[in-house]
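Human: We require from you a standard protein entry with sequence in single-letter code and fold as tokens, and nothing else.

Assistant:
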Amino acid sequence: MVFYFSGTGNSRWVAEYIAKELNDSLVFIPDAIKQEKYSYSLKQEEKLGFVFPCYAWSVPTFISQFISMLNINNVSYLYYICTCGDDTGRLQQEFCRIVEAKGWTCYLGYDIMMPESYVCLPGFDVDTNEKEQNKIYAAKSKLNFAVDDIIDCRKGTFVTLPGGCTWLKSVLLRWAFHKWLMTPRYFKTNEKCIGCGMCVKSCPFENIQLNEQRPEWGNQCVDCLRCYHSCPSHAIEWGRWTSKKGQYLMPKDFHGF
């Protein structure tokens, strides 16, 4: 069983690949949360996996909260795969602590570098088309190794991308991100907005509503930026720095397996 979350499609692509190779079922975490479905049963020798994007060099808060509420028996082998645009800091150690609090052990983890989607601050933007393709090509190869390791039930295998200054990123900067930057209050629309409602349809948590043909963001935002990247007229902005930045979505029909 593979639980996953994806905003712009990177983690969805990875989760679909893993589920296909392992012949496992997929659970989209926002759907489970909306249905308040937290109890699941694993088949004999079925593996338990989590696929999610890195947020501020850490595990997204709503992912850790979801895991804390899960009720799953017979967990014999657990792994995670994290997608990221660059590095992940101390995410591996954090994820292991989260599942240990459930009485589980994480035996394997992979960080998979994928096309960049975070654009909110200066110095962050989407990748060039060439860099996107290079990342996806490298990700395919790395995923093949991950699948083989999962099938073999490898233990103690963590192929991660911590980068430098891990304490600064995963502790101090993460705290600052969550306190001041991971909020819907900076979302707005400019004069390009056509009131099409694509942002409403794209939001994984149904957190956006149209008011007089203009979107309004509620309090369930997880800052996945799918609304920004899905807007056909590039009318959605976050703060002061996104108006001239690019958009990125992994096409739903793209497999590349």
